[in-house]
Amino acid sequence: MRRFLPRPLILFFSPTTSFHTSPTVRFNFRTTSLTPGLYTMSESDHWRMRLNNYLQSNGGTRSLTWEVYQSGPLHQPVWTAIAYVKGVEYGRSTGSSQNGVKEEAARQTVSALYHDRGMRA
After folding, report:
1. How does pLDDT run across 12-58, given as a tens digit for each residue?
2. Which residues lie below 8 Å from residue 68, measured CB to CB, with a gap of 6+?
3. Looking at residue 67, which CATH number applies to its domain?
4. Model's pTM, two decimal places?
5. Domain containing residue 75
């Protein structure tokens, strides 16, 4: 049987002083994962999530299809992602990271969809 271990966490302590009659120290806790790249993106950088949220509120995510393919040598792949909404291409990106090109294609798609509706992304 395979065991799954939790990701290692680091607790950061930031002391803050309290202004009571006796000096006390309180700690604010925040957790950070040791896994690189996790919890580093701000909410505005999650373009695939924003695209899915937009489509859910405007007709459903079934209208979204992705075409993702790899070209180039295996040691240095070039990824291409194309986002289609109802069969129409709205975003296309090429780069060295599969997740990166999907995020960029999603960003282009969200921008184009908001532009079509006359709204700001």
Report:
1. 444 444 444 444 444 444 433 344 444 445 556 799 999 999 999 98
2. 79, 80, 81, 82, 98, 101, 102
3. 3.30.160.20
4. 0.62
5. 43-117
